[in-house]
Description:
single chain; alpha+beta; Alpha-Beta Plaits; 6-stranded antiparallel β-sheet; two-stranded antiparallel sheet; 4 helices; globular; binds 7,8-dihydro-7,7-dimethyl-6-hydroxypterin
Amino acid sequence: MTQVFIALGANLGAPLTQIHQAVVALQQLHRTRFIACSPLYGSRPMGPSDQPDYVNGVAWLDTELTPHQLLDATQQIELDLGRVRKAERWGPRTLDLDLLLFGQEQVQDERLTIPHYGMKDRAFVLVPLFDLVPDLQLPCGSALRDWVATCDRSGLFPLADSQ
Ligand code: ROI
């Protein structure tokens, strides 16, 4: 079993509902044990600012799937919950599931980059991940705690009663 972390994001439709539905779908994944979901946050959009605020969180699982099997499964959940892939880079989305970490593995190919390339710069990923595992060491050797200490949290706000 490998411990994995998946970033959850949504800013179209009913973001909180989609995030909750995604958590239910992750809880039903085969050969996988769902451990926990972080508290959820509201966050100002990174990228084009003419889009709604996001709801963000991080899910923690233990899986026997390979990284690509898990990617297939998360992309299927995105589609099932109404995601339409658009050409626009960094545009709004009904549901985004990003594989952040897959144990200590590093994966780099045309479909997948693990650790997720953008996580170091994204408070909306780092902060909920830190809520779950404050002592996490990253595959590159650095401590999550150090990234969280320096990230810009100005666009991030806790959502009340998000659990
Ligand atoms: N911005 C925020 N705040 N949260 C996201 O989940 C998110 N996802 C994205 C882009 C468009 C980069 N911006 C985001 O994919």
